[in-house]
Design goal:
alpha+beta; Alpha-Beta Plaits; 4-stranded antiparallel sheet; 4 helices; globular
Length: 111
Amino acid sequence: MDIEVVEKHDNILLERTEVRLLVKHSKERTPSRKELAEALKDVLGMKKETLIIDTVDSEFGKNTSKVYVKLYKDLQRAKDTEDDHILIRNGLMEKKTKKKAGAAQQAAPAK
C-alpha cells in the first residue's frame, strides 16, 4: 500500500490538521479504516487515537482510494468536535443500543 499526501491544511479554528491522501493498493482490496490507521500513524507521525479517518472513497475498477483524515492534538478535542457516528466508525466510542419498545409492551398484561 503506497500513501501519497495530496494536501495538508492546518485548521486553526478547530485545532486540527486536515490531510487529503491518495492510497494506492494495487492487487489488493480497499484497506479497512483499521488498516489505514495503522499505516497512517507511521506516515503522519501521529497517535492512532487522535487520527480520525473521515472518508475513504474508492472508484470502481481502480486500485486507488481518496482518503480524508483529520489529525487532532488530543483525544478530548476530537471527541468534542466530531459527530458520534464518526467516532464510532473510528473505534473511539461505543455504539449506544436502544431498548425495544415492543418488549416493554409485551411484558404488560393485556386487558
